[in-house]
Amino acid sequence: MEKMRNYFRKSLARQFVVLVTTFLFVFVIGAVSVFVYQSSLTTSFEQKKNQIETKMKYAQEIERAFNQAFSDARGYLAFNRKEFKLSIFREQENVQTALDALELVATTKDDTQFILKARQFANYYFVQLVPQAIEAFENGNIQKVLSLSENGGTASIEQFQFQMKTYKNKLTEQLDAEFQQLRNAQTTAQTAFILFIVMILAILITIARIMMKKIGRPLNELAKVAEKIANDEQVVYDMQETIKREDEIGKLANAFKKMLMSIQEKEESLMAHNEELLAQQDELEVQQAELEQALEAMQAREKELKRHNDFINGLSNSLDKQEVLKNIVCNMARVMEADRGMIVLMNDEQTHASFGLSEEGVHQFLTYIYNGLHQRLFEQKRPFMLKRELVPSEKGYHEETMYVHDVFLPVLSNENDVQAILVFSRFGGPFSDEDIQEYVGLTKQISISLQKIALYEQSEQARETVQHILNTVQEGIHFVDRDGHSVMVNKQMVTLLRKETIAELEGASYEQWARGLVEQSDADKKLCDYLRAIIFNGDEEHEPFVYHLPQKRKVMQVYAKPLYRNGERQGTVFVHRDITKQFEVDQMKSEFVSTVSHELRTPLSSVLGFTELMLTKELKPERQKKYLTTIYQEAKRLTALINDFLDVQRMESGKQTYDKKYEDIVSIIESVIETQKVNTKIHQFHFQKETDKTTVLGDRDKLAQVFTNLISNAIKYSPEGGNITVRMYERGNRLCIDVQDEGLGIPEEALPNLFTKFYRVDNSDRRRIGGTGLGLAIVKEIVKAHEGEVSVTSELKKGSTFTVSLPLVTLANAEEEERDNYEKYAHAHVIIVEDDEHLAALLEAELKDSGFRVKHVKEGKEAIALIQNEKPDAVVLDIMLEEHDASGWDVLKALKQNEHLSNIPIIISSALEEREKGMALGASSYLVKPYQPSQLSKMILQMLLNKERQGEIFIPMPKEEAE
């Protein structure tokens, strides 16, 4: 123990470490104790909270199940629907499951009592009350049902609901009590922690006082003794107590005592040395004179170095080429003590700067730069000097003979090419060889500076190119560094931030550029939090953020990408995209869903309602016919809606097909008008035909769909009735059809979006009319597929006019083109897959009479092999082939799965009514037996024509080869 005490007594550092270690030990023990106590409180509370919440969840499930059972029982007794009855007993199982789960977590007497009461009520309700009521209801004894309700049934339910509510309230109160207990315990812990901090501060103060006593006092005594020594006062060293110490202070006191004794002993020796030093002073004065001479030489050198330094600064302080050249020529003139000089870059512009020269002299120098003396620089690439007599224009008022010394210096690039030349003249004296060597070294500095400027200009050009590229991007692009300062933006971002120029945002702080963006958006705090999280917290997992600009009526989406260089994050690139149109489409789709649900449910409700009436009641024949008519009309309405959806889906996927033929538009429109007259009694139809050229190339059914949509819209949106006029006229080489009504009209702002899918004009009158917003989109797609156009003009409260414009053909041209098509495709190769030999012979004869080359095969596998070998232009396929071989469906699937055969048109010829399946598997058309054989040849010819129009090149065989 004594040895340990001596170990610490000999070192202040060890004593300090012991004190600090003791302090840290006490602090850590206390902090850990407080932390453990806090954690235990939190853990205990979480356990109790989770237990109570579990009870609450099961209690709510019990309550929900009982309430659902009550509702289903009332629904069954009210509507006699079987699903309500089944649901009652499903809820009985849910009640029992929830009660079992609650019993597993029950911990209090209240839990046990509630479970007991709930089980008793469940047994009473599900085993006694509900079966009796259902039996009485199904036997038609409504009076007994009412009696069961009045004689305790309703009271028992209300009593249980009150018990349920009381139990849930107790759980809530229990949770509140646990939370209050946690708060009280935390308050106690906080008070203990404050007392612990006060104790720690007291220990720190005690440690500080101990260290001051052990170190400060003896050091102060040593300082006083040292001060007396410095003032040459008599010193009496009396620090016996300090000297006896074994630590660093004691060692310092002993050393100081020995030093003091040594100083006193050597004082006499120093006096002798002083006399010797006085003798040496005279010698030093002599040396001083020599040093002054050296100083003058050094000052001259300093001036020279200053000129060199100015020269270097002139090269490095600017990146402006003209300014650097001016600095070079001026500073070189000072270094060389030249009277005039010039520098010229060997570029296309001959960029230059001069010192002491007139404009005429500069012009003369540039004119003859590649002649005379300068040519020597380009050939030898070494400096040279020239001494010449001054001409009269250079002498001024001097009359005697005078000479000037010119020096020519090349500035060489890294490739040893002359990139600039320097010429300087001096009247005072010649240039030495040492001077020339020095100037050559300076030209190397000039070369480096010129290369740096060239690199800077290249980087500036690259930066400008990048900026131009960014400015062409439609999105707003903004690059900020890790501190939020703006580094690079494009013009779109400048406009978004409401600035005039890009320069206003260069170097702008986060507060400066973000304020304008946040203030004009409707998501100020959320947008600010989004930007801060990415810029300052480095959060790279954020999804794109959408915000609105109400003043500009825009919806913007911003996403961020970090920019790294050598693994270190340099900043963040923000891209602001204008998604206004996409947002509007999403809104229209959402609105479309609600509209469609209404449009589909309305006819379904009518169908179900009238069907239920016909099933449950005996009706007179005329009423049955009326109900069936309504059901039929609503089913047709549903079919039309579904067809609209399917048409849009096919158009968007590019799978919509058109059977185009030469059709007379007049007959199509007259047929549509006759059909639409049935749907209204308050409208008058007028058909004005102002031209005899009414033939177009088109799909009759699809064109009928166009005019059906337009005329039905005219009827729908003129609810007060009036005239509906269809006007047909010729404009140039196009046939125009106007559909005009006298209805509600269309607002001007709605016209640009009128043909957009799901779009409906926002007007209460139109909302009552209904619709899916797909009709006009389908019209536009069909007209576009016929190389036509559709437009609209409208005036509110006065009506609208829709105009369809289609390419016009004459009958003579149509017949000639049809003849050309027959000649062009007459030698196409067709394979018939048919197991009925008589029908196959009939089809083969028809196709050969039409000029086609035909082969017949009976079996599926044989057909696949033949088609793979010969790759025909069309295939006629029967579905019901021989059973032991592949069926027609197998042949169709095999052909469509082969990428080399998948584009061959396939016409299904079958007695089966499975058109939907055939078209879904990729068939081009579907013919149901029996049919006219001539219909088949026309269909194949039309398919080959459409195939060529769609860009798939068809090359018919020459007649000679066909024969």
TrEMBL record:
Record domain Response regulatory: where: 829-944
Q: Which residues form the HAMP domain?
A: 213-268
Q: Where is the Histidine kinase domain?
A: 595-810
List the catalytic activities from the record. ATP + protein L-histidine = ADP + protein N-phospho-L-histidine
Q: How does it sit in the membrane?
A: Multi-pass membrane protein
Tell me what this protein is called: histidine kinase
| Organism (species) | Anoxybacillus suryakundensis
Positions carrying 4-aspartylphosphate: 878
Q: Please tell me which top-level EC class this enzyme sits in.
A: transferase
Its EC number is 2.7.13.3
